[in-house]
């Protein structure tokens, strides 16, 4: 039957009332379910049970066994012919003095707020003045609105495994105000995603960004570590595969929050609105976080760094994953060892130091500022970077480690059931890794290559090579000629960062090309030419896929441009809005 309203009381907000209007769709069918469950995470299993019983219309109070015990969950069901419209209004005890806004009044206010949003969107991103069509601007608004609308509040504990413990423990209970990569599929905070999310938010509302960044820094433990995936509480854990629930306190994640802090500093300097009090609060935490990286991810030589967490004993992976890097199955040294060191992590550390010493100068910390600047100059020294990571024979920057590309997955029939294991055809040796993809671009992405350096010229040349990364849809993650291109890492894992186009790295590339296109030097014109082409390719394809599917996607096929993976994915893929506004 049709329900007019649901009312009740819960501890957090007191009395509440939810009102439903009648559906405007003809021949609508209504149902409701009132029951009592031990927790919200039981709801999905309960619904599956109902559907197996043939109860596709909710059965009212049939499953409220003890009528004296009130329901703690009510679900309302409306079915009808599209287009279907129903209005739901909520009032809590804290709103009792407010006038309820419904019907025509709500429609009028909504139109007014929509017009205000449209005006502010154009003031912020200037897409109309850049020549984008109304349809393209509408797409950009949808992508941005889903990103900022996904900012949510979570509370609970992560499950953490520390060295020396026999089993995982609950991390301290914490609150987190954060964006999410996908509101339906990844409704939780991810550390390296969030730095990209907040680049957009900073452009829109600097105070929201400062609040989100503060919440993430509140998650630091006494050592300076932040869990990379925030699976807070039982409800969140119920939605995550077991292998990803436990967070290991030796494993890092790219410190992308420094990207946002750099953007924050630039914006405050441009607007002459430097918030010194905020910088005073965040600086000690950022320093502790950086020092944790500097201690825990140190490499085998001075100024080298190594992502922890790779499995050196497995024979089930074609190339053992580097989950800590965020690039998961991107090929690294084929045989993980303590001798390897990673180009992208060194570049992230250089960015972090660049931001830290800028903040330290505003804090007048004197000693801190000069020490950080000295360390930054050491990491930013192009000669040292070239000695460690430049492969002169291939004219590219690379990782270093114990590596062979002569590996394959082959069926082992000596096990029951048979499984695919890795076979090494040529023994590995310590050397610069010969894969080419996103990792090799990091000195460019972090804008660490001097504008007159020949290394910049070679990098731009490789960037435009269609046999390597260039496509008409954006930059693929791994070169077409690479032995690991589009190869599955196990018999269960499809390729992820082995060819597909990812928008976060493409955004960093567009940003870097714009930077070098405005720097005096022999490669200025080439950088600006590539910037224009890559920006156009990305915007055109993401918009095209949105028009044909209705979604912004997690990543895109490098040969067809088709959306792939999770959808909707309005986390870092929403950076297309900044690419349009660049």
Task: Spell out the blueprint of helices and strands.
Layout lengths: L4 E6 L3 E7 L8 E7 L7 H10 L6 E2 L12 E7 L8 E5 L10 H23 L8 H16 L2 E5 L2 E3 L7 E2 L3 E5 L10 E2 H14 L1 H12 L11 E2 L2 H5 L4 H4 E3 L8 H14 L5 H21 L46 H20 L4 H14 L1 H8 E2 L4 E2 L2 E4 L3 E6 L6 E6 L4 E4 L9 H4 L8 H10 L6 E2 L2 E2 L27 H14 L7 H26 L5 E2 L6 E2 L11 H6 L1
Parallel strand pairs: 3-4, 8-13
Antiparallel strand pairs: 1-2, 2-6, 3-5, 7-10, 8-9, 11-12, 14-15, 16-19, 17-18, 20-21, 22-23
Which blocks of ≥5 consecutive residues have pLDDT under 50? none
Characterize the main sheet: 3 strands, antiparallel
Number of helices: 17
User: Based on CA inertia axes, which overall geometry fits?
Assistant: globular
What features would you describe in this structure?
This protein has 582 residues and is an alpha+beta fold. Helices cover 38% and strands 15% of the residues. The chain has 17 helices and 23 strands. A 3-stranded antiparallel sheet has the order 1-2-6, with no helix packed on it. β3, α1 and β4 form a beta-alpha-beta unit. α8 packs parallel to α10, α9 packs antiparallel against α10 and α10 packs antiparallel against α11. The longest helix is centred in the C-terminal third of the chain and has 26 residues. The mean pLDDT is 94.
């Amino acid at each position: 039957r049709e329900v007019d309203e649901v009312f009740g009381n819960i501890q957090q907000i007191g009395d509440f009332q939810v009102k439903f209007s009648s559906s405007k769709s003809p021949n609508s069918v209504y149902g409701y379910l009132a029951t009592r469950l031990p927790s919200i995470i039981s709801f999905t299993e309960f619904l599956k049970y109902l559907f197996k019983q043939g109860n596709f219309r909710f059965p009212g109070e049939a499953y409220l066994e003890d009528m004296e015990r009130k329901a703690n969950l009510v679900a309302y069901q409306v079915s009808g012919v599209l287009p279907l419209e129903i209005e739901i209004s909520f009032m809590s005890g804290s709103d009792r003095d407010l006038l309820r806004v419904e019907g025509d009044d709500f429609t009028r206010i909504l139109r007014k707020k929509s017009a205000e949003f449209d005006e502010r969107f154009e003031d912020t991103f200037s897409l109309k003045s850049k020549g984008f069509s109304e349809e393209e601007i509408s797409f950009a608004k949808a992508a941005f609105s889903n990103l900022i609308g996904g900012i949510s509040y979570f509370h609970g504990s992560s499950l953490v495994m520390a060295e020396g413990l026999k089993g995982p423990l609950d991390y301290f209970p914490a609150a987190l105000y954060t964006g999410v990569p996908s509101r339906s599929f990844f409704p939780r905070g991810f550390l390296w995603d969030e730095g990209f999310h907040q680049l957009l938010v900073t452009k829109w509302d600097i105070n929201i960004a400062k609040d989100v960044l503060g919440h993430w820094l509140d998650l630091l433990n006494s050592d300076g570590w932040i869990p990379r995936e925030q699976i807070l509480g039982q409800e969140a854990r119920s939605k995550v595969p077991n292998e990803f629930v436990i967070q290991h306190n030796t494993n890092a994640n790219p410190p992308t929050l420094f990207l946002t802090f750099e953007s924050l500093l630039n914006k405050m300097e441009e607007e002459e609105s430097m918030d010194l009090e905020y910088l005073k609060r965040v600086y000690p935490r950022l320093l502790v976080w950086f020092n944790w990286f500097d201690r825990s991810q140190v490499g085998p030589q001075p100024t080298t760094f190594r992502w922890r967490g790779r499995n050196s004993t497995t024979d089930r992976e074609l190339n053992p994953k580097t989950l800590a890097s965020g690039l998961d199955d991107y090929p690294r040294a084929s045989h993980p060892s303590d001798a390897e060191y990673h180009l992208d992590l060194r570049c992230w550390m250089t960015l972090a130091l660049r931001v830290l010493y800028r903040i330290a100068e505003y804090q007048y910390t004197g000693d801190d500022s000069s020490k950080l600047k000295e360390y930054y100059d050491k990491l930013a020294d192009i000669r040292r970077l070239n000695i460690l990571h430049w492969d002169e024979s291939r004219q590219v920057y690379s990782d270093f480690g114990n590596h062979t590309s002569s590996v394959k997955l082959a069926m082992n029939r000596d096990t029951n059931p048979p499984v695919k294991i890795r076979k090494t055809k040529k023994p590995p040796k310590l050397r610069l890794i010969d894969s080419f993809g996103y990792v090799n671009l990091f000195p460019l992405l972090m804008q660490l290559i001097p504008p007159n350096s020949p290394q910049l010229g070679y990098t731009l040349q490789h960037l435009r090579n269609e046999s390597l990364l260039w496509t008409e849809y954006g930059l693929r993650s791994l070169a077409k000629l690479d032995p690991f291109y589009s190869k599955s890492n196990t018999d269960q894992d499809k390729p992820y960062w082995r060819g597909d186009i990812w928008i976060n790295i493409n955004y960093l590339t567009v940003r870097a090309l714009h930077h070098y296109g405005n720097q005096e030097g022999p490669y200025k014109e080439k950088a600006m030419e590539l910037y224009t082409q890559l920006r156009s390719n990305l915007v055109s394809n993401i918009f095209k896929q949105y028009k044909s599917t209705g979604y912004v996607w997690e990543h895109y096929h490098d040969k067809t441009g088709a959306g792939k993976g999770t959808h909707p994915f309005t986390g870092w893929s929403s950076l297309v809005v900044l690419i349009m506004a660049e």
